[in-house]
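Ticket #4471: structure export looks truncated?
Reporter: QA, pipeline team
Priority: medium

Steps to reproduce: submit the single chain below to the structure queue and open the exported record.
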Amino acid sequence: MIWVDVKPENFRWTRERAGMDADALARRFPKYPEWEAGAAQPTLKQLEKLARAVHVPVGFFFLSKMLDEPIPIPDFRTVGSTPQRRPSPDLLDTVYLCQQRQDWYREFARLEEEGPLAFVGSATVDSDVEVIAATIRRTLRLDLEERRSLPTWAEALRRFVQAADALGVLVMVSGIVRNNTRRKLDPEEFRGFALADDLAPLIFVNGADTKAAQMFTLAHELAHLWLGQSALSDTALDAMPAHEVEIWCNRVAAELLVPLAVLREEFRRGEELPEALARLARRFKVSTLVILRRIHDAGGLTRAQFGDAYRTELERLNTIPRSGSGTFYPAQNARAGKRFTRAIVISALEGGTSFTEAFQLLGIRKMRTFDELARRSGIPV
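Actual output as written to the record:
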C-alpha cells in the first residue's frame, strides 16, 4: 500500500478553497481529520478520491506554496459595498472553460477569415443610455413589436439568446460545471459574465438562476460587450451598484428590455400593482421583476416600495415550479452555445481540431454523442 506524505496545511487549503468544512469531508473520508491534523497520511487512491471531492488536481496537494487564485477578469460583484468572498472552484472552472472555448473560437474565426465585430467596444460609459439601448435592439434585430408577438416572455428569452448568437456572440447558458450535474452553480455567487473580444465575444449566463434574472443578465452582459470590457458582475434586478460601469450596464439593460418612454405611455397610475405587473409583462414580454424595476425607474415606486414589492413578487415566483432543462441535447447546446458547438463540430469533422480537444471543450465523452450533436446542428456525418 502506498502512503502519500502531504502537509496538513495543504489539506486545509484545498478544503477551504472548495468551501467545505472538515465535518462534511469526514463523513466521506473517516480519516480526514487525522490527515488535516498531520496525525496520519492517506493512500494514493484515497488522495485521488479526495482531489475529486474538492475539485482540484492531485498535484495541488504537493504545492510548496498555496496558490492565490484571483478571478482572471474584472470582478464587480459586491455584497452591499463589500467585495465577494474567495471565488469557488465552480466559478473558477467555469471561467477557465469559457476562456478555453473563446481561445479556440478566436483561432477558428481567424482561419475562417471572419472580420472583427464592430459593436464590441463601440460605446463608453459616457454614451447616452437610450441611444445605446436602441442601437443594441436594432443590431440584434429584435424590436419591441416582435417581442410583443411572442407567446410568452420565456419564449422571448429564447429568441433573445438566438439573436445574440446570430450577431456573433458565443452565448452559453448553464447551471452546472461542464456537464457535471453534481456541481451546480450558485446564482448567489454569480449570475453571469462577459469575455470581450472583437472576434469571439462570449457571454455566460448562470442557468441555475431564474429565467427572469437570466434575461436581465444577458442584457447586462451585452452592455459590457458594447463597452469592450470583460467583467464578472452583480446583475441582480434589485441591485444598486456603486461602480460606474455597473450602473451604466444596468441602465442600458433595463432600457434595452423596457424603454422608459414606452413604459410611461403604457403605465396607468392608480392601477393595482399586481394587475399592472401582469399586463406590462405581457406587453413587453419580460418578467414581472423587470417591470417592477422599470416602474421604480419611472418614479412610480419609491425605493422602499420597490424593495418591498420586489421581495413579495420574488417569493411568489419562487412558488411556481420550474420547468426542467429538457433532454440532454438541447441542454448541451445551451451549455456550450449553438455557435460554438456548430463551429467545433465542423472543425473536428474536417480535421482542423482533434476529436480529443473537441470532446474536452464540449464536455462530452462518446462519439455517439458527438454524432448526434452534429446531426442536430444540421451537419452530415
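Status: closed, not a bug. The export was complete when the record was re-opened. Leaving a note from the reviewer for reference: The beta strands are 78-79, 82-83, 170-174, 176-177, 180-184, 192-195, 202-206, 231-232.
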